[in-house]
């Protein structure tokens, strides 16, 4: 199972859901640990709110 932090750059819910579904299939499951963006957003997966992390608080891990 993949753990992921999603960086959203669009407000297209269809794209978000499609991308999540692809990742779930490719990795035999997906745990969203959070979502980030330039401005606060609210997203949900399977009826559960995904934690928002401000972009300036995300450590890129050397990226």
In short:
With 63 residues, the protein is of the alpha+beta class.
Structure characteristics:
globular, 63 residues, alpha+beta
SSE pattern, N- to C-terminal: EHEEE
Shape: globular
Largest sheet features: 2 strands, parallel
Output the strand order for the largest sheet. Answer: 1-2
Low-confidence stretches: none
Percentage of residues in strands: 25-35%
Number of beta-strand segments = 4
Question: Rg to the nearest angstrom?
Answer: 12 Å
Write down the overall mean pLDDT. 85
**Whole-Å distance between the termini?**
22 Å
The structural class is alpha+beta
Number of helices: 1
Helical amount = 10-25%
Please provide a written account of the structure:
- With 63 residues, this protein is an alpha+beta fold.
- It contains one helix and four strands, in the order E-H-E-E-E.
- The longest helix has 14 residues, at 13-26.
- The model has no long low-confidence stretch (mean pLDDT 85).
């Amino acid at each position: 199972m993949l753990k992921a932090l999603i960086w959203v750059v669009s407000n297209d819910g269809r794209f978000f859901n499609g991308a999540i579904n692809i990742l779930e299939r490719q990795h035999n499951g997906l745990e969203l640990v959070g979502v980030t963006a330039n401005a606060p957003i609210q997203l949900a997966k399977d009826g559960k709110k995904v934690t928002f992390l401000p972009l300036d608080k995300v450590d890129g891990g050397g990226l």
